[in-house]
Amino acid sequence: MKTFGIILATVFIFSTPTYSLAQGSQQGTEVTINGNAAVSIPWRLRSNQLQLSDTGLMYQMGLRLSSSENYRSQPVDAFGTVKSFQPLAATIDRQYRYLDVTSLAKNLGWRWQVVGNRLQVTTAKTEITAVNASSLGSDRAEIQIETGAVVPWRLSQDATSGFLTIYTAAKPTLIQAPVAPGTVPGSIEPGDEQNITNTSFKVTGQDQKTVIQFPIKLGSRARAIGTGKGIKIEMSPTAMPEWKIAWAPGIIWQQKWQSSAGQQFPLSILELDPQKVSLRPILGQANVVGSSPIGDIATSNRAAAAINGGYFNRITRQPLGAIKVKGKWLSSPILGRAALGWQEKGGWQIGRLSYSEKITSSRGQVVNNLLNSGLSQGSVGRYSIDWGNAYQPLTNNELILTIQGGKVQQVTSGGAASAAVTVPIPRDGYLLIGRGGALADWVVGTTVQIAANSSPAGFDRLPNVLGAGPWLVQQRQVVLDAPAEKFGGGFGPQSVAARSAIAINAQGKLWVISALDRAGGKGPTLGELAKMLQEMGAVDALNLDGGSSTSLFLGGQLVNRSPATTAKVNNGLGIFLP
Fold it and tell me: Which of 228, 359, 456, 567 has its CA 20 to 30 A from that of 263?
């Protein structure tokens, strides 16, 4: 065992805690802990009862949740102060699931008050007196932190390091003399532009916050557990805990290890009942161009949960796939790739989707397959106000036709794509883009009519569509064929990455799934994902954008990985409670 610091019995605790409770009701989404910068935790004060969101308590304050079959009652581990999980009353309020922590917080000596729109929480005053690390074998290790009293914490993990943030001060000797027991290589997702760096063990801190950084071995993960008067960090390939929680009517939240072909894969799953929740594609902005963290997209749309959706150009942030919301096409499918379509209460359909517009004018007829798309293939494209207020050429020498009132009102030469020429998009019309000489004889005054359709035909009747691909499972059979959907080498049979997927089971429930690095290795291949979903009982399944885009959001928090390891996304699938 290597010891970092000396254990001292110096603990300061308020003997008579007081509580500043609001009259009536107050609520917000930010909490400060012991005077530190605010963290995102939805909270409410109702009838002198303190309520905090369950996922906020878990991912920002270290409270462990356990499996539960009743969404109104949630068993929790009170930071290791009791021998068994204790139930807390739970309340659903559209986006969040609140737990009543009034009695628990009082027993722990916490105080709270509202200042502005923030909840300020002050915990029992204490100090980190020692940090002890030990190796338990080639792939397991532990770190024991002595705090003397219960104090909240936040654990996160990136490609090479784990970070335990504890909301209290550490002994000065721990901060002044960090020890480096060695470095280990980290893991990284293929295709994600991150630099792999070796990291060492160190303790840093200021005022009432201490950060313990520690190296993470390839294929390992970390978990933190309260011990009553301290915190234990466990590191191993299978350190992720499992649970199955009835989170809300129509939403079951599960975290599990799934075995497939001798491999263990960590899955985060939301099982959705279409009779009790509704779903729709969501964007983080008023138009289809842009990107944001999935949590910001979900919050701005008031979704209770969300998963990242289809593909997009990371540089231009333009969509590359089907988005249809409440019967309106916002962006067309591309390259015959697979998409999911659905009715308001289910009626799921997956298919390799195509879209076409027959554009008839007094100058002739053309066919367009691209609506508000970042893909520039083909001779014609159409861009509406859903693209944004203006259009900038995607390729050189485009011909840009402004259409209003069913007629060409203006013809603009785009010139070089790099010249930053922009053309306003009319709110009561659209732009037609001619590429490679197309539309050259369409002059001002040319009349224009459009007839659109999609294939398979059933998708025309589905109000919501989200495209991605490849198609993984059809009628319980693996149908993975990335080349048929024109995916490149990054989707080859040996490519491993974090994955997001949607699957439909035999009971008509929808699984929203995140799969990360396997135990002792990297994420699944597409073939492994398809086979795993088939073995789990999926009738149909669709792959979504993956890698650093893989992000699952629930009740105000990212629940499948650390936010530091995720990228911004263009769109997602939003899950809404009544």
Answer: 567
